């Protein structure tokens, strides 16, 4: 099998990065826009629910008496991105598809709490699930080699308890984790800036919605526990 050169590797990382950055930008943009405009629970939305208006385009979009939430636009973008990625297009390439997919997913995830709670746009579920998805994207972009090693070890095992035992006793996994830790401390400036901005945004969200602290602490303890188990193999 031909070895993939550095140019191919960089190219393969561009699309996941585009998805990640467009996802975060889309989510933050639409959330801030809703907060500023006050469209969540606005008079037009209430009037549409009560059947008082059929058409309105402003802070809300009402067509034929239906409130068109922005997650619909997100679904449309995801569908277009899927078509471009699978079928292809003479107008868009796969990088464009990556941007559309990330933007569409951001619009959709902004209202995931509204969908799961039957109408509560401000539900903390939107932040929790969106941060979870964002964490997955960040792992795909910055730590792909580590998770490839984890997947390889999981495939070799039949029973779950043997899976974890094999992962934490495998020298290659430990070496990979160490290598990732070393490389992480030498990341490029753009990565540091991106992560720094992300942490600032999370801090602002915690100030606005203190309930997020509970979930962030739980996730932090779980990740630290896994990290310590991997590192324990060194001693």
Walkthrough of the structure:
The protein is mainly alpha-helical and 235 residues long. The protein has two domains: 115 residues, no CATH class; 93 residues, no CATH class. It is built from eleven helices and three strands; from the N terminus they run H-H-E-E-E-H-H-H-H-H-H-H-H-H. A three-stranded antiparallel beta sheet has the order 1-2-3, with helices on one face. Strand 1 and strand 2 form a beta hairpin. The longest helix is centred in the N-terminal third of the chain and has 32 residues. The chain is globular, with a radius of gyration of 21 Å.
Secondary-structure topology with pairs:
Elements: H1 6-37, H2 43-49, E1 56-57, E2 61-63, E3 66-67, H3 70-86, H4 94-110, H5 112-116, H6 125-142, H7 144-156, H8 160-169, H9 171-184, H10 189-208, H11 212-231
Antiparallel strand pairs: 1-2, 2-3
Helix pairs in contact: 1-4, 1-6, 3-4, 7-8, 7-9
């Amino acid at each position: 099998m031909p070895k993939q050169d550095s140019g191919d590797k960089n190219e393969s990382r561009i699309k996941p990065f585009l998805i990640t950055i467009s996802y975060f930008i889309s989510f933050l943009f639409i959330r801030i826009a809703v907060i500023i405009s006050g469209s969540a629970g606005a008079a037009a939305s209430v009037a549409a629910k009560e059947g008082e208006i059929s058409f309105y385009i402003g802070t809300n979009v009402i067509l034929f008496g239906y409130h068109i939430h922005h997650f619909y636009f997100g679904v449309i973008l995801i569908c277009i991105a899927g078509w471009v990625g699978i079928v292809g297009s003479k107008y868009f390439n796969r990088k464009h598809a990556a941007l559309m997919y990330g933007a569409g997913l951001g619009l959709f995830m902004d209202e995931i709490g509204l969908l799961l709670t039957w109408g509560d746009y401000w539900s903390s579920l939107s932040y929790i699930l969106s941060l979870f998805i964002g964490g997955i994207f960040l792992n795909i972009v910055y730590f792909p080699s580590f998770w490839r090693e984890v997947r390889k070890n999981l495939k070799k095992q039949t029973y779950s308890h043997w899976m974890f035992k094999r992962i934490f006793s495998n020298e290659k996994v430990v070496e990979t984790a160490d290598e990732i830790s070393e490389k992480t401390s030498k990341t490029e400036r753009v990565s540091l800036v991106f992560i720094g901005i992300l942490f600032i945004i999370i801090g602002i969200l915690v100030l606005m919605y203190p309930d997020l602290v509970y979930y962030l602490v739980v996730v932090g303890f779980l990740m630290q526990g896994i990290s310590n188990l991997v590192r324990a193999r060194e001693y």
